Amino acid sequence: MLDIISNREIKETPEEIVRQEYIKVLINDYGYKVEDITLEYSVKKSPSDTRRSLPVDIAIKENGTSKIFVETKKTEYQEGFIQLKNYMDFESDVTWGVWTNGSDTRYIKKIIKNGKIDYIERNNIPKKYFADVSEQIKKKDLITATNLQIIFRRIRAYLASSEVGTTRDENIAKEIINVVLCKVYIEKFTPSDEYYEFYANQDDDKKTAQRIKHIFEKVKNKYDEVFSFRDEITLTNQSLAYIVSQLQIYSLTDSSRNVLSDAFESIVGYSLKGEKGQFFTPKNIIKLMVHLIKPQKQHKIIDPACGSGGFLIESMLYVWENISNIGISDLAKQEDQRDYAMKKIFGIEKDDFLAKFCKAYMAVIGDGKSGIKILNSLSTPKMLEQHDINLASFDLVLTNPPFGKEISIENDLKSQYCSSKVDIAFLQRALDLVKPKGILGIILSEVVFHAPTYKKFRDLFFKNNKILSIIDLPHDTFRPFNNAKCVALILQKEKNSNHKNLIKMINLKEIGHTPQGNIKYIFDYDKNIITDELADDVPSVIKLLEENNFNNHFIKEIEQKRVIDEDVYIPRYYFELSKPNKENFITIENLISENILESFEGHGSPSSHFKGKGEYPYVRVKDIVNLEININVMDSIPEFEYIRLKWKERKLREKDIVFVRRGSYRIGDVGFVYKKDINSIYTKELQFFRVVDEKNKYYITKNNLLSLLRSKEVRKQLENLIFMDTTLPTIYKRWLKIKLPLYNEQDMELLDKKMSSAYNKRQEFWDILNRSD
Questions:
Q1: Would you kindly state where each structural domain of the chain is located, as residue ranges?
Q2: From the CA atom positions of the chain, what is the Rg in Å?
Q3: Are the C-beta atoms of residues 290 and 258 closer than 8 Å to each other?
């Protein structure tokens, strides 16, 4: 990894990752410069230690003298504090200390009284040029947070270990979000050049708590339709002061991700989220979808699964931006913006906890009565009407329906939907809410867009409407909270008879975070280093859309008729990574139609209780290794089970090729069938290829076919042909679309000889081994 301070490559270790991430925080959030920071700074371990033999992980200097020490190696903060105190004891200029393990961060301050050194815990450290943390700053000096999730995780870790009686994640989330709303309120109503009230008094937690609770009373009074008089912040003074100190330097309203979503995702545990299906859409995806539907001030919009309000807030801000560019007075603009927030924005959320805070956030941001309803979106039309939600009355619907482990439709509501599948019921209800010629934007699991079991729903909902755009979302989009691979669909509710319209197919590769939810940066392959540039394709795609550039490596326009004919609604399927010349490639499908190749699937699976109790091999996906079949005697089956499963009309031959068509990362793996493998049973997840005409015009033989199937050109194609079936990858019948590279006769013959030689040598090995048995 790249060391930020020295700009040199260093060994990546868990401890070094923590240190480098905190250096970014010091630079981006606290304003320190690279030249202010020293790594492995030498300090004394005793007054007589002239060698200065102890290394501090990070030392921060200001005006040439050390100001702050940071310890990142100790995993427990009590051990870290002991180490920090040892470092700071003999460094007279160092007043502040920080311990962090990446998820939890603690602070201490050195106090000298009557010649004696003492240490007290603090809630933060000062920014550059600040002597203390409690110094007020002006609103205009607030900074944009680089990663809100890290900050909220830090807060959650502190509360979980320090706050008595508030250890459940939902309770912690409620408390934090109340404080967040106070901060958003203050940011909104504080003029840019004035000091703002949201700050912590470092030596007086009680005074800090009183001030924040007073702000919360203002929030409650202004938005009495959202809060009741019984709502209160119940955190201890110390915990409340800690949260304030962690958030006070940041502008939440200007940060790049939705604040409530970040807070909730960072705090609420996986088990709770898994039960309720509360997996929030990343802000960059929301931004892209809003950009595609382009809401206008006359548009009435609803999200029937609004969660923390991400789609609604982004849509509102998009419209507000358009209003601010109109040539009218500022007062008129403010009135139009408030009018839009009050009359055009609607949301439905079943979870009362989420709904309440979505209402609160919408009220604080939009300065108007919220249209958020606490309701089941799949309720009867009559029930919806009682809450002022009418079918076919919205210009725009934007939503990411829940797909948690325990999500189901109530029995008395199932009859009104074409399927008991929750995702399909939400799709149907979302379309019901849209006006004729209105637009729906919805995120669904990838399986909906390709699986045979969903074809009737694609024909019903996709084929019968005008599809405007489809976005292939990276698999990491909802990780680490959910492993589902998803696709976003934008369609117009309009009878589409000829399907001549062009669909904007958008293929995203990077989403800005890793599978673990950490920020992901671009890797520079030329320099072999990780850069500071965020690995996020969305800004580039939005720029291309604004430039009307619809034919590039991110976007392609495909006629809807072709998509219907292929019955594949996944963008990457239509992107050719290698851009092959048609004369130099041929599909497996064409080879089969020309009777050069034949293909057939494996036998099936034996009864599980017969495995390991016979002499006939049973071959599974995991057994295709290193271009051959690995026989596992622990899976062998008895003769009668072999006879039951074996083909009656077909028999395997030497040099048949086995191809993995289902099974996690192994899809596309291939291997030769040797003599030893012929009398085996193979799972149906394996496909076989056999060259039946070796005197073909393409010079394809039994030998060189294996080489072609394992070529880089084919491996690249597999990325666009393998789809997710819920959480398991599958290629289904799309292996027929694989384009095999073709070469001239001489090169094809050379490949044939090489593979034939390799096969014969391996067969000789097996023959010798079998004779020795």
A1: 14-133, 148-247, 269-574, 582-772
A2: 31
A3: no
Backbone angles phi, psi at 165, to 5 degrees: 85, 0
Six-digit token pair at 339?
């009018």
- The pTM of this model reads 0.81
Torsion of CA 133, 139, 140, 143, to 10 degrees: 50
Helix axes 169-189, 259-267, angle to 10 degrees: 160
Contact 627, 709 (CB under 8 A): no
Q: Measured between alpha carbons, how far is residue 418 from residues 165, 347, 438, 461 in Å?
A: 46, 24, 21, 11
Residue type, 667: I
Please give the structure tokens belonging to residue 399.
């939503």
CATH code: domain 582-772 is 3.90.220.20
Among 519, 514, 531, residue whose Cα is nearest residue 1: 531
C-alpha angle 497-502-504 in degrees, rounded to nearest 5: 135
Tens-place pLDDT, residues 90-141: 888 999 999 999 888 999 999 998 889 999 988 899 988 888 877 778 888 8
Q: What is the pLDDT of residues 141-186, one digit of tens each?
A: 898 876 777 888 888 888 887 776 655 677 788 888 899 889 989 9
Residue 203: CB atoms within 10 Å:
13
The architecture in CATH of the region 269-574 reads: 3-Layer(aba) Sandwich (3.40)
Q: Which CATH entry fits the domain spanning 14-133: 3.90.1570.30, 3.40.50.1000, 3.90.330.10, 3.90.550.10?
A: 3.90.1570.30
Q: Is the separation of the CB atoms in 440 and 434 below 8 Å? A: yes
pLDDT of residue 95: 94
- Using omega within 30 degrees of 0 as the cis cutoff, is the peptide bond preceding 304 cis? no
679 in Cβ contact with 603 (< 8 Å) = no
Q: With contact defined as beta carbons under 8 Å apart, do 436 and 494 qualify?
A: yes
Backbone angles phi, psi at 386, to 5 degrees: -65, -20
Which residues, at least 6 apart from 694, have a Cβ–Cβ distance to it below 8 Å? Answer: 700, 701, 702
